[in-house]
Amino acid sequence: MSTNLPIDLEHLHQISEGDTEFELELLQVFVEDTQEHIAKARLAIGLQDYQLIAREAHHMKGSSGNVGSNAMQALAHDLEDLAKQQSIEQTDAILVQLEQQLLQVQDFMKTYA
C-alpha cells in the first residue's frame, strides 16, 4: 500500500469498520466542509481576523484528523498557530497547500472503491 496516499487508509478503515461506501460518504462530506472552511479562512485572512482564522483552521485540523488526512491536519495546525501569533505571513501559502491536498483527496476518491 502506498504511503503517498492523501488519506491514512488504516485510520479510515478503523472508523468505518471497513465500510467503503461509508468511507466515501465521509470523505465527500469532509471535502465539501473543508472547501467552505478554506473560503472562510481566506476571507478572514483578508480582514486580518485572527480569531476567525484560528477557528477555521482548528475546525479543518479536527476534521482532517478524523478522516486520516495527516498532511492537511499538519497544515491546518500551522495555520492555527500563525493565527494565534497574529501573523499573516505564510497564511496564503498554507491555504494554497490545503487546497492542493484537498484536490488530492478528491482524486483519491475517484479511484477508490
Short description:
The chain has five helices and no strands.
Q: What does this protein structure show overall?
A:
With 113 residues, the protein is an all-alpha fold. The chain has a single domain, classed as Four Helix Bundle (Hemerythrin (Met), subunit A) (Up-down Bundle). Helix content is 80%, strand content 0%. It has five helices and no strands. Helix 3 runs antiparallel to helix 4. The longest helix is centred in the first third of the chain and has 28 residues. The mean pLDDT is 95.
List the helices and strands and how they pair.
Blueprint: H1 9-16, H2 20-47, H3 50-67, H4 70-84, H5 91-111
Spell out the key features of this protein:
mainly alpha, 80% helix, Four Helix Bundle (Hemerythrin (Met), subunit A), elongated, 5 helices
Proportion in helices: over 70%
Please write the string of helix (H) and strand (E) elements.
HHHHH
Architecture, CATH level 2? Up-down Bundle
Average of the residue pLDDT scores = 95
CATH topology (fold) name: Four Helix Bundle (Hemerythrin (Met), subunit A)
Strand content bin? under 5%
* Through-space gap between termini: 14 Å
Largest sheet geometry: none
The H-level CATH homologous superfamily, spelled out, is: HPT domain
Work out the radius of gyration: 14 Å
Number of domains: 1
State the shape: elongated
Number of strands: 0
Figure out the total of helices.
5
